[in-house]
């Protein structure tokens, strides 16, 4: 009997899996030769960034490829948009509710579908931990499709952005666009000599920035009773992680290695980060936590108050570069403030460069990126739709309304031109009005007339200069981008919860680092 | 020929109902789990032999959960038994208010875990009553639930919850020991120490085995409180096998979940087998 059991065990050990869900290279070529037909579903968590844009793209794709059907599913509720007006200026606040319960439910739903061999054909990687799906063989390696498809030329796209999303040698996620933040400084707070020190560099670490501004900071604050801060965020609060979040995001790659599933938080660098944040906070470099953690929703008064604050540095979205270019081109001034950081007074702002970390990683992120489900029955259609979303036509389409910079090179330049001339905004407003009033069927001639008007807009001299400057800055900065941190909502929550113990004084930096490392490794290795 | 009638023992019919229940609710789900643990994925999966088992024993989180669970059982079960036996002996000797004392120790059994979680949290959170008290007397507070001190808190919860149950079992065992044994020991001049080890403990062996089995089962149940107090990813010192299995359930990793279940069943079966053998030998 014992012998029999031993033999059975050995037999079981010898039997190994040969099955594989992912499509091999030869079958990809076969797939690409198939005629497009049938139905696919695209699933996204975020409604605001995806729904309208994908619906438009799907409709256009279906018209071009009769016999195909693209279904769009989104999960989160649309954000609330509040507008207010005061003294001739107006403000719109888009309040995006971050609901961890909703996130978890959506991820569970996708997990259930994938584990049961089903699920949407295309998955938007907005909150999904794609590295887990890639490891589990649930996502197609798009590199095979890129290699086998002659109509896809990587040179036509921002190669560094696409390749930065590679994981374990595979391209499981395809970005449609990218966004990044840059650093601007208030030139009125620095002397000419001090500003000259910045000129030779285009990437900076937080330490470099703070060291460069220490002298000017003490000088400026000695002259006035109104404190002038270095940055417009608080050191840390559970509601608005502020400076900790920014610094951690920049260094996350040095602390976490998702590919090898390891966390390295106990070599002293993480504890040093926390301690230096505390020191900077005590020195008054950041906004006090109590002031910035009250509410996420900005009122007109708050905004006016923020506009009076002088800050040494501002972390601005790439969108601010466009706003500056528009202003230079003669358009009305529009100010954009994203997230919890205050931009303060922008009258003397000058563009400085990008943030990087010790490993020379310059981070960026995306608003839209997709993966193809390895269980999909119609991978050919899924890949064709992805390619369509990346096409120049779709990436410049105002109806698709992309906030980030298009990955398609030609589309990025074309869109920059449309943005500077205001075509994007006019068209955007027209399509928004159309969708609100349902005018499309009622007055087609009127629409045609409007479209002709906006399309015929030519660049003025000042607009051309602004466009050249804008495109140069965008392209120079884009060349430097090389790192897109993998987002994992659970890891994010673990970090916030644990770091809160450091800032409320119940744990020291080393304890937080050790506990966090253990927890994250526990989670990553499960 | 027809004289030979098919005779069915009525006892078999009664047993059949139980057997159906056992097969439907225990044997069948376990067989299904065992089958899943030999596949690479639950749907259209391929047979991978013992690969999932090998992978699981290379999984750091699983090994940590296994180590912590065994450590917790190793500490909590003997400690719980010693304390409950001590309390049972004390109550057995008490002349007045015996029922009241018994009732006091049984109260934790009837309080729902959910409501008790608020109490434990109020006590041991960083800004809880215990730390407030420590600060009041001039000592530094401890982050009880987020440091290695969490293990002691879980131990305390386990003892608080299960002391009464084990105590009642021991009291029943003590009550069944014939008084004549003690009288004979007294005549023979045995001291209290000898009486306890040679008579009380010896006669309590079957009950002790039952208490060990029940304590091990209850030690797994303490997960409910740990989970409600500290969530899915607690301090590493209290990350148990159930955390691993619970997290695998939520991330729908059926392979790891079912493989871990099979190993757990194997460990419990071996433990129970060992205890029954020990009981048989001890009684002989």
**Structure summary, number of beta strands of chain A:** 15
Describe the sheet with the most strands of chain A: 5 strands, mixed
Q: So how many helices of chain B?
A: 13
Range of helix content of chain B = over 70%
Number of strands of chain B: 0
* Structural category of chain B: mainly alpha
What is the radius of gyration of chain B? 24 Å
Features:
heterodimer; A: 526 residues; D-Maltodextrin-Binding Protein, domain 2; 2 domains; 4-stranded mixed β-sheet; disordered N terminus; B: mainly alpha; MetI-like fold; 13 helices; globular
Task: Describe the protein in words.
The complex is a heterodimer of chains A (526) and B (284). Chain A folds into 2 domains: 22-178 and 366-410, D-Maltodextrin-Binding Protein, domain 2, CATH 3.40.190.10; 181-363 and 485-524, Periplasmic binding protein-like II (D-Maltodextrin-Binding Protein, domain 2, 3-Layer(aba) Sandwich). Chain A contains 23 helices and 15 strands. Chain A has helices at 2-14, 25-32, 51-64, 100-115, 130-135, 142-148, 159-164, 192-196, 206-223, 242-255, 269-282, 289-292, 300-308, 318-328, 379-390, 392-396, 409-421, 423-437, 439-442, 444-455, 461-480, 489-503, 509-524, and strands spanning 38-44, 68-74, 80-86, 89-95, 122-124, 174-175, 177-178, 181-186, 203-204, 256-257, 262-263, 313-317, 349-355, 369-372, 405-406. In chain A, the strands form 5 sheets. A 5-stranded mixed sheet of chain A has the order 2-1-5-14-6. In chain A, strands 9-13-8-12 form a 4-stranded mixed sheet. In chain A, β10 and β11 form a beta hairpin. The radius of gyration of chain A is 25 Å and the shape is globular. Chain A starts with a helix and ends with a helix. Residues 3-20, 291-295 and 434-456 of chain A have low confidence and may be disordered. Chain B has 284 residues and is an all-alpha fold. Chain B has one domain: MetI-like (MetI-like fold, Orthogonal Bundle), CATH 1.10.3720.10. Helix content of chain B is 75%, strand content 0%. Chain B has 13 helices and no strands. Chain B has helices at 10-36, 51-56, 60-93, 98-110, 113-124, 129-136, 150-175, 179-187, 192-203, 205-221, 223-230, 241-250, 254-283. The radius of gyration of chain B is 24 Å and the shape is globular.
